[in-house]
Design a protein that fits this description.
alpha+beta
Length: 373
């Protein structure tokens, strides 16, 4: 079993190195709010402009640290708004050539305003705004938007009409025809299906902190019943606060929630070292931590926005995606570890405890980073 311990040490060290600054370098989707008034298209883009200026290909990316431009990106994040704006202007001139809007023909877009906030919390991506306008030909009843390849995901939100369109595009994808007068709101089934992958990708590959928490639950005991009970409590709890957060009934500063999520990872991992079974009080604690994680999910969902006309189906779809992501983590851990070594008499000492120690160390680092760094 010595080789197994070595394998686990290497595996979790890689996870620690890769995820140490996950918040500071997390890739968030762009948001494009658009209206058409008096034949003029107005687009307001909220995006992580430093990643674009650095030339990072955001398609399928969850962490900018995984790119050769990571150092350039960090330098741009530290620039004041007046220093960064000329670079954004140059970038936008070239980028707009690949940002296509068709409305009975190409719509030429011009930059009308650039808004860059002052440097704030370095642990979070800075959200800047790029405002574009273009003339829509007379007699056009709909338009299609092509999001440039390499630009990651974007949430398209139509404004100022009845039953507005809301959709999600990956880099290089084109929207369906969007009626200028509205009426393109998604059906309940469409909204439900579209938000499942949004929830799933927040766990895999983007939710390393949630992945480690679920793994902390997994390594408590090789028996299935305690795992199912813990995951069920966690699911019920985060569903409650996810719904309350999405409805705007609960709003907690991420600067408070994120360190507490890191502490929840430390707690379950440390208890795995000293406890051999699921105690009743751990169940209550897991429920409380589930409430915290639900607030974290609500923050992510707030970045995407939910279609007002199909709020509930989209919310349920997101939650289903989160659950599928968690189940995928558990299934992978079961097939890769417990199926082969769970019945070994030294499973706890040579697998579960070393893994839990490593998870606790990562969670501790994240707590310190999110509070003090």
């Amino acid at each position: 079993m010595t080789w197994l311990r070595t394998l686990f040490a290497l595996l979790f060290c890689l996870v620690a190195i890769g995820g140490a600054s996950v918040r500071a370098h997390e890739v968030t989707p762009a948001i494009a709010d658009f209206t058409v008034t008096d034949r003029q298209l107005s687009l307001k883009l909220r995006l992580n402009i430093e990643a674009f200026v650095a030339g990072i290909n955001l398609d399928g990316l969850s962490d900018t640290n995984q790119t050769p431009q990571a150092a350039d990106y960090d330098e741009l994040r530290a620039l004041e708004a007046q220093e960064l704006e000329p670079m954004v202007t140059l970038f936008a001139e070239e980028w707009l050539e690949t940002f296509r809007v068709q409305a009975g023909g190409p719509v030429v877009l011009d930059v009308t305003r650039i808004t860059i906030p002052e440097v704030g919390d370095a642990s979070l991506p800075r959200a800047s705004f790029l405002e574009l306008t273009g003339d829509v030909p007379a007699g056009t009843g709909s338009l299609r938007i092509t999001w440039p390849a390499g630009s990651g995901g974007v949430v398209l939100r139509q404004n100022g009409v009845v039953e507005p369109y809301t959709g999600y595009l990956q880099g290089g994808e084109t929207s369906p025809p969007i009626p200028l007068r509205g009426g393109a709101a998604k059906t309940p089934v469409e909204a439900f299906m579209e938000y499942i992958p949004v929830g799933f990708t927040h766990i895999l590959p983007k939710g390393l902190d949630h992945i480690l928490f679920v793994l902390g639950l997994f390594f408590l005991s090789p028996r299935v019943k305690p795992l199912l009970l813990q995951v069920s409590l966690f699911t019920v709890a985060h569903t409650i606060t996810l719904a309350l957060g999405a409805l705007g009934m609960v709003d907690v500063n991420p600067a408070i929630v994120e360190p507490l999520i890191a502490l929840s990872i430390v707690f379950v991992a440390v208890e795995n070292i000293f406890a051999r079974k699921l105690h009743a009080w751990r169940s209550f604690v897991i429920f409380g931590f589930g409430l915290l994680h639900g607030l974290g999910f609500a923050t992510v969902l707030g970045e995407f926005g939910l279609p007002p006309s199909q709020f509930l189906p989209a919310l349920i779809g997101f939650n289903v995606g989160v659950e599928l992501g968690q189940l995928a983590v558990i299934a992978a851990a079961y097939l890769g570890v417990r199926l082969w070594f769970g019945r070994h008499p030294k499973y706890r000492g040579r697998v579960a405890i070393p893994a839990s120690v490593t998870i606790a160390m990562i969670g501790s680092y994240w707590f310190v980073e999110r509070v003090f760094l």
